[in-house]
Amino acid sequence: MDTQQYILTIAGFDPSGGAGLTADIKTFQAFGLYGLSVCTAVTVQNDIDFKAAYWVGLEVILQQIDTLFERFTIEVVKIGIVKNSEALVSILEQLYQYNRTIKVVLDPVLKASAGYDFHSEDDLGVLDTILERIYLITPNYEEIQSLYADKSIKETIAHISSKTKLYLKGGHRENSLGLDELYYNKTMQLSMMPSETVVFPKHGSGCVLSSALASTILLGYPIEAAALQSKKYIEQFLSSNKTLLGDHFPLSSAYKTSK
Description:
Its EC number is 2.7.1.49. One of its GO terms (biological process) is thiamine biosynthetic process. By secondary structure, the chain is of the alpha/beta class. It contains 8 helices and 9 strands. A 9-stranded mixed β-sheet has the order 3-2-1-4-5-6-7-8-9, with helices on both faces. α1 (20-30) packs across α7 (205-218), α2 (58-71) runs parallel beside α3 and α7 runs antiparallel to α8. The chain starts with 5 loop residues before the first strand and ends in a 21-residue tail after the last helix.
């Protein structure tokens, strides 16, 4: 009997291995999970320079999803870069055809850390529909300001958290750098200050955090405990070395959060 737990990432390929599919797979493995992957784009980048993205056709993306679900039981999916909202809606529809209770963690990559724009404002028009179909969204502080141009950050947080769970990453805050917050039902449920661990900037840290959240959710952690566990994992990743490419290894048992 196959007792392996499978988890899926739908994201882009980064040749440097720091972000996208490769980073997701490394994170999944650190949590003891077998990572499956569907490629949405082939990017031309390294850890400091983003040059281009060559998008995979939607039909090919859906064929990849079909092939994996024909073979594996998948309960949780992390989604990273997707060309536009139309493609994202089609992907979500395909996932729910296979598993009506699937949990989707969406990392809304609106701009690569090197400055490449992935989405235009027009692509965000169906965001409400998307939010209602996902389990968790993980924008950083810059991304959340771009999601609803006509709303303040406070209004945007309330709006999003009325529709789904929101993990607001604090790495781009001007004040309280590293303060992460978890919201749902329009209310902040958890505020996570950074520890005193010395950390260093890392390429792909947003991908790693969202993959850690997807992993802990699959492992059965309640959302608050999943958030705390993932916060500890990303700090371990950020402190792993002084380069822009972090190391992945299982979270030390001394720092694990109980379920």
